[in-house]
Amino acid sequence: MNRGNVEAGAGGGRGGRGGVNLPVLRGHNEALLLDLLRAAGPAGLGRAELAARTGLTPQAVSKITARLAAEGLVAEAGRDPSTGGKPRTRLRLVPGARHAVGVHLDRDELRAVRVDLAGDVVAEWSRPLDFGAGPEAVAEAAVRAVARVSGEAGAPLPLGVGVAAPGPLDWRTGVLGRVTGFPEWEGFPLREVLVGRLGVPVVVDKDTNAGVAAGWRPGGPDGLCGPGVPCGPGGPGAGGADAGGWAPDGTALAGGSSVYLHVGTGIGAGLRLDGVVYRGTRSGAGEFGHQVLRLDGPPCRCGGRGCLEVLCLEAVARGDLAGAARVLGEGAANLVALLDVDRVLLGGRVVAGAPEVFVRGVRSVLAARALTASPPVVGLAPAGVAEGAAELALAPLFGRG
After folding, report:
1. Nearest in space to 212 (alpha carbons), one of 346, 368, 116, 118
2. Average of pLDDT values for 103-107?
3. DSSP 8-state assignment for residue 291
């Protein structure tokens, strides 16, 4: 997209996301309008609504949306009923105009998805993966996966590729650290290698950060349900209106902060605080699985003893899923007491195998250990880690870099 000067308009905005009308990159205003149209869904928004929500003048909105329409990103969504004058045209995002790819590199599996601008999956592929085969082999597998889901030869390149991998890693540089159990990955510049082979922008982040990024879905707050899992009052993601989860009409109530707990081959957490993914100064935030719950407990592969990860996964291995959920809940209660978040989202293959057991178990522990009148809502993440990785790749287009 062209990044020339911004059109003039009146100042204003919505909590730091208002239109910019000084001589700065006009891309800010394009991203702002695209983000609003994405959230509005197929119904779209009128130019007057866009102007009111951004603080831009109607003239500026018209110029920007005309340019976005010429690029195929925006189209008409119909007209509002006339109130005496000319019916106002509503605009919508065109989901199929562009796409991004998300790749989840797990320790034993690779999953890749292609998503449209609405974040909906239009293609996916998975295969076994040996993360211990070494960085070069895994990087090559990621390149093949991107090609597999990107469409036929000659199809437009993705806007970007998001790659989620086990941590620790530096999300700014895409260089991996000493991944537990895989020391050979330390210092490998995964993002640089993939950019060179793919020729498109690449984002590399921890799997848990991608997981919490997937918690944002257009048109609503952090989702509380997953594919095939009932949502709303009474479903596994329900928390009750009094718990800040679901209003009496079944709609989800908004919240600013959430944690995503991933239970798979390892255990970690993604944090979104005040609407922003929090990674920490050294990209080390979210090492949730290595908090010690039992002094002198069983040895963990991190070198410690009695870590939440080893206790929870041992319970899973012996078939005690309710016990694993309680262990996860105890760790979650520690995190909630520290950060006072609005919601706790659960994901990963272990959770997917018994979603109601884990939601019920974690919710029960949080309720018992609540330090406030309203414990956080507990539910399932609305999408997987690969989808979250694709969301990270799309983020700059919508001003969410």
Report:
1. 346
2. 96
3. S
Distance CA 153, CA 110 (A): 22
Strands 343-347, 276-278: pairing is unpaired
Give the span between the Cα atoms of 51 and 32, in whole angstroms: 11
Question: Which residue's structure tokens are 């479903």?
Answer: 235
List 188's β-bridge partners, or say none. none
- In this structure, the number of other CB atoms found within 10 A of the CB of residue 281 comes to 6
CA distances to 120, 284, 292, 360 from 178, in Å: 33, 12, 20, 34
CA 102 to CA 164: how far, in whole Å?
A: 8
Residue 116: CB atoms within 10 Å: 18
Query: Is there a contact between 160 and 100 (Cβ–Cβ < 8 Å)?
Result: yes
d(CA 310, CA 178): 18
Q: Give the model confidence (pLDDT) of 258-300 as tens digits.
A: 999 999 989 999 999 988 899 988 888 888 999 999 999 999 9
Mean pLDDT of 211-240: 47
Comparing 331 with 25, which gets the higher pLDDT?
A: 331
What whole-number distance in Å separates Cα of residue 340 and Cα of residue 154? 49
- How is residue 40 written in tokens? 């509005």
- How far apart are the C-alpha atoms of 251 and 377, rounded to whole Å? 14
Residue 153 to residue 289: CA distance in whole angstroms: 42
Rounded Cα distance between 131 and 207, Å, is 14
Name residue 206's beta-bridge partners: 165
Q: Out of 91-105, 224-238, 289-303, 350-364, which region has the weakest mean confidence (pLDDT)?
A: 224-238
Residue written as token pair 């292609």:
114
CA gap 138, 86 in Å, rounded: 58
Residue 397 DSSP code:
G
* Percent above pLDDT 70 for the chain: 82
Q: Tell me how long the chain is.
A: 401
Cα radius of gyration (the chain): 22
pTM: 0.82
